[in-house]
Amino acid sequence: MGVLALLFDVLFVGHSLVGPNLPTLTDAALRAMGQPARVQAQIINGATLAYNWDHSAQAEGVDARAILTASGTDVLILTEAQPVAMAVKWSDTATHAADFAKLAQAANPQVRVYLYETWPSLNSGPGNVTKDDPDAELPWRQRIDKDAALWQSIMRDTAARSGVAVGIIPAGQAMAAMADAIAAGKARGLTSINDLFVDDIHPNGKGLYFVAMVQAAAITGKSPKGLPAKITRSWQSRDAILSPELANMMQEIAWQVVEAAPVAAKETVTPPENTPPAPEAAASTTSNPVPAIEPMPSFAPITNPDLAIGLAGVNDWSVQQPFLNIMKTARPWIGHLPGQWGGWGHDDLAKAGALGPGGWPLRLPPELTGISTLILTDLPAEAAGMAGRYLLTYSGKGTLKVEGRAAIVEAAAGSISFDYTPGEGGVLITLAAIDPADPIRDLTVVRADRATALAAGEIFNPDWLARLRGVKGLRFMDWMQTNDSPLAHDADRPLAEDYTYARIGVPAEVMVALANQLKADAWFTLPHLSDDTLVRHYAEIAHDGLNPGLKAQVEFSNEVWNWQFAQSRWAEEQGKARWQQDHTWVQFYALRASQVADIWAEVFADDPSRLVRIVSVQTGWLGLEQQILDAPLVMAETGQAPAMSFDAYAVTGYFSALLGSDQKTAIVKDWLARSEQAAKAAAPANGADAYIAAHRYDLAVDLAAQELRDGSVTQDPTDSVAQVLSEILPYHAAVAADHGLRLMMYEGGSHVVGYGAQADDPALTDFFTYLNFTPQMGALYTQMMQGWHLQSDAPFNAFVDVYRPGKWGSWGALRHLGDDNPRWEALAIGCPTC
Could you give the CA distance from residue 479 to residue 511 in angstroms, rounded to a whole number? Predict the structure, then answer.
């Protein structure tokens, strides 16, 4: 099975019964069934196929005729306007459907063409008189049966006129079967077919899910039974929420109807003698206009003089999108074994000798059918600033495919331009063939309006820079992929020419360039396996590259006390081997951290004021720091306390009041129930649903904020702002002072997230996500910054800059580059009374 069989193109041509949400749900259903696809749609609301043919260049979505002419598709789904009888009578449906089918087959002889059978208005029935609709008085259910024969005749006529096999996607029959099931009391939770519609003809979220099941079943020829009720990352609307039982019933009905549908029709037409050849279907001559770039809103700048920030990790789903060259965030290579997606990774390709300088493939190993990567994956629709036309350029020869959310505009040797809009899925780039004599390499992907800036040597996304300009420090822990890092030797360190920075981290030179551009101190976290040569080289890069006036801050690894990470287990192994004792991991951390600090001190010996050597501790384990700073086993070996090698002592500034813990889950759930009841009680008679949706968390947020502030709701102040400021931080400030060290913060802010099994509770996740960006949360940040500055003059270090919230936490101060929220505003302004 080739790569084309692993990810194929689906193209809808139709009207509002297609868009805008059915393609997204169909895409999600196909992926859930193990068939990744790029699903696109040409949509002209209310249009016949004739109008879609004549005006494809002006349609919403994509220009189907241009796509079919340029690159074709694997699956073409056509639908006619309603009422279908009138469209057939006046718009010559089969002829225009055949035109689309022939155009599709010319580009791809294996194309599969389907006719998407829809349904009439629910208003159809006795007494209904509608202009140009002679069947308006027929009952809706009866009319679907009557229209079925007409849809099948369109299918046969289209096949006869095009010579292309045409199947049917029986969504109208599925709606009829669902209506029958509801009438028989077999659809728990539904009382009428109207429960699947927002008006007389357009499905709501539940109805669209049902139609997507029909689409996926017809396309794959497989039952969708067993797919989850929520097939997208989040419910697309409140009316999309359905139970697993109802989803299962919809899947069963969808498959039953698809199995019973008529087989694809195909007939060959023999033209009469002396008939001149039919003209080729004309491609759209209208050029593809460059989509308008949505300008970023104007935001208040950072004026906080004491704000540092950790940078979110670099990956293909990065919402901060820090680089002009999007390839630098690409997923490491995925090699496809026959008949499956993936099977090989970057390391497998390297072991096979298939990768050259920069990690670019030299050849396609015979075991593989293609090598792929992903970019711009699952960016939220709110990240509209990422939409636009992109330019991919490359050197070398071979076959390069761009699929997924990319709508191809033009392809030529060495370049492909495509349009992109954020949403579920990503842009898939596949090397399907590689010329070993001149392999494809040096891929860049840049928004077209920024290509000149990239060519001029600029590195960073100006939208991202604009949000961060004003910060005083940058911690690069996630950029360096410090946790669990395998990096040990200088020969393996990340380089600027690497195809992606998402594999082993961002090059030190790039981090230095960012610090210089933002005029921010740079905090490096050296991987725990780093040998002395690698440690020294990083120090030299920082020493030689950082602008005068900026400090290089160095820390050995990250949270070596934290057994969640490989570095803590490694430290315990090293300590046991060195001293033949258990539970020595933090003492070994102290030893190696002091050695790393000493190497950096040697490099910065000409101006020690430019260097800050940092040791960190577990903030909540009071007393553990003694094993690090004084480390008796290290002192016995070296004669010197590790603390002597450092300038600063770093802690966290997190607060959570343990809201996500087992012991407080029932309490938080009670707040949520009371809060929703309060919203219902206060809701006006008109617009009650909207009021409840807007205010259902009001009481719960107030209670949570009070608990976060001081624990007074439950009388348990553990991990509250009050406890952190009155007990934890003063303790560490005293320890730092006793050792002559500056107290610094390496991470801080809200730690409100579900712990363990609670992370899988959608009610908690939704509430915690909402809570983390409320005005009450912003006020807590202000209180934390005020309290922090009573203990230290070092910046408050927020974790992290831009990250999409989810069940694993709401770590990003911004949720995307176009975001603004009270928490970010508090950080940007700082502590007015400090």
Answer: 8
Q: Which of 648, 650, 556, 553 is nearest to 610 (CA)?
A: 553
Strands 521-526 and 742-750: unpaired
pTM score of the predicted model: 0.69
User: For the segment 692-738, what is each residue's pLDDT rounded down to a tens digit?
Assistant: 999 999 999 999 999 999 999 999 999 999 999 999 999 999 999 99
User: What 3-state class would DSSP assign to 384?
Assistant: helix
Rounded to the nearest 5°, which phi and psi values hold at 656? -150, -20
Q: With bands split at pLDDT 50, 70 and 90, how would you rate the model's confidence at 3?
A: very low
Beta-bridged to residue 111, according to DSSP, are none
Is residue 310 helix, strand or coil? strand
Strand ranges (DSSP E) for 117-224?
166-169
Q: How far apart are CA 402 and CA 414, in angstroms?
A: 13
The most confident of 58-72, 233-247, 813-827, by mean pLDDT? 813-827
* Domain locations along the chain: 7-260, 324-458, 490-646, 655-829
DSSP secondary structure, 211-277, as one string: HHHHHHHHHHTS--TT--S--SSS-SSGGG---HHHHHHHHHHHHHHHHHSPPPB-----PPTTPPP
The kind and range of the H/E element at 586 are: helix 585-603
Average model confidence (pLDDT) across the chain: 93
3 Cβ contact list (under 8 Å, min separation 6): 336, 369, 370, 372, 401, 430, 432
Residues in CB range of 198: below 8 A, 6 or more apart = 204, 239
Kind of pairing between the strands at 552-556 and 343-344:
unpaired
- Per the rule left: phi > 0, alpha: psi between -120 and 50, beta: everything else, 500 is beta
Q: Is 412 exposed, middle or buried (0-12, 13-18, 19+ CB in 10 A)?
A: exposed
pLDDT, tens digit, for every residue of 5-40?
456 899 999 999 998 899 999 999 998 998 888 999
Residue 105 one-letter amino acid: Q
Neighbours of 244 (CB within 10 A): 10
* CB neighbour class for 580 (10 Å; exposed up to 12, middle 13-18, buried from 19): exposed
Distance CA 579, CA 686 (A): 74
Q: Which residue, among 642, 531, 540, 523, has the nearest Cα to 601 in the 3D structure?
A: 540
The pLDDT of residue 90? 81
- What would the two tokens of residue 5 be? 């069989």
R_g of the chain, CA atoms, integer Å: 31
Q: Which tens digit of pLDDT belongs to each residue from 622-675? A: 999 999 999 999 999 999 999 999 999 999 999 999 999 999 999 999 999 999
Matching residue, tokens 């630098």: 328
Nearest to 58, CA basis, from 69, 72, 70, 45? 45
Task: Note the helical H segments in 261-377.
Answer: 346-351
Residues near 513 by beta carbon (within 8 Å), at least 6 away in sequence: 459, 545
What's the topology of domain 7-260?
Rossmann fold (3.40.50)
Reading the block at residue 451, the tokens are 């290509």
How far apart CA 433 and CA 706 sit, in angstroms, is 60
CA distances from 346 to 1, 77, 377, 478 (A): 21, 37, 19, 20
474 sits in which H/E element: strand 473-475
- Decide if pLDDT at 287 tops 80: no
Residues 465 and 456: their CA atoms lie apart, in Å, by 17
